[in-house]
Specification:
- About 40% of the residues lie in helices and about 20% in strands.
- The strands form 2 sheets. A 7-stranded mixed sheet has the order 3-2-1-4-7-5-8, sandwiched between helices. The chain has a two-stranded parallel sheet with strand order 6-9.
- It is globular and about 50 Å long.
- The chain is of the alpha/beta class.
- The protein has one domain: Alpha-Beta Complex (Spore Coat Polysaccharide Biosynthesis Protein SpsA, Chain A), CATH 3.90.550.10.
- The longest helix is centred in the C-terminal third of the chain and has 20 residues.
């Protein structure tokens, strides 16, 4: 007989994270001891060239429910999140950045919001007083401009689509990851567009957050890709690539 599924799956998309993962997994292990939920951890190794997978595996003694899921080759954060979500077994599935820019202790805010919503997204912009370490002025300005583009092109109401801290009722939200096509950093607006498209309830929750200077987002290259991804999402919608359930 298969063991009962956990209440919570925590998904960590990881690319060359051997240095940051130990502190992250230690903190998550401590959180799981106090949160009162049966949980599993999925570290999704996105074709890392370092010891990311081995470092994650070394925590199996502290976190027996930890699994390492491999993409084989580097596919991008969006692909990693989708892969982790499709491998997850929990009633609730949450993904978080490997650097825990949003502290894992904030997860309770998102989980509580799922009592009346299908997905809950962490936000830096709803209450900026919760930001402990800000990005550079240029990055913050670029983020504001990107969000305005998302709001205009995709008609989304959120003020921060890019915070890497989101939770989903897995049964209700499975269709989002079945239809997700964006594989790199522009995947968040696609998930939120799909949620609205399929009539799911989404809420934006202010969370504590601190910028990590070791971020993997390249200011120029990834900003251009994300900008183009927004229009790709709109184009996919016009071509009927996101069919509604019958």
């Amino acid at each position: 007989m298969s063991p009962a599924p956990p209440d919570l799956s925590i998904i960590i998309p990881s690319y060359n994270e051997e240095l940051r993962l130990p502190a992250t997994l230690e903190r998550i292990a401590s959180y799981l001891q106090t949160c009162g939920r049966e949980a599993e951890i999925l570290v999704v190794d996105d074709g890392s060239k370092d010891r990311t997978a081995a470092v994650a595996e070394s925590f199996r003694s502290k976190i027996p429910s930890l699994r390492v899921v491999s993409n084989g080759v580097n596919r991008g954060k969006g692909f990693s999140v989708r892969h982790g979500m499709q491998e997850a077994r929990g009633r609730i599935a949450l993904f978080t950045d490997a650097d825990l820019s949003a502290p894992i202790e904030e997860a309770g805010k998102l989980i509580d919001a799922l009592g009346t919503n299908d997905l809950a997204i962490g936000s830096r912009a709803v209450d900026r007083s919760l930001i402990s370490v800000h990005e550079s002025r240029l990055r913050e300005f670029a983020g504001i401009i990107f969000n305005k583009i998302v709001r205009i092109v995709l008609w989304l109401p959120f003020v921060d689509t890019q915070c890497g801290f989101k939770a989903f009722r897995r049964d209700r939200c499975a269709i989002l990851f079945e239809q997700q096509r964006i594989e790199r950093f522009g995947f968040d607006p696609e998930l939120l567009y799909l949620a609205r498209h399929h009539g799911l309830r989404a809420v934006e929750i202010p969370v504590r957050w601190g910028h990590s200077p070791a971020t993997k987002v390249n200011m120029l290259r990834d900003s251009i890709r994300m900008f183009l991804d927004v229009f790709t999402i709109r184009w996919n919608a016009l071509l009927g690539r996101y069919p509604r359930k019958a």
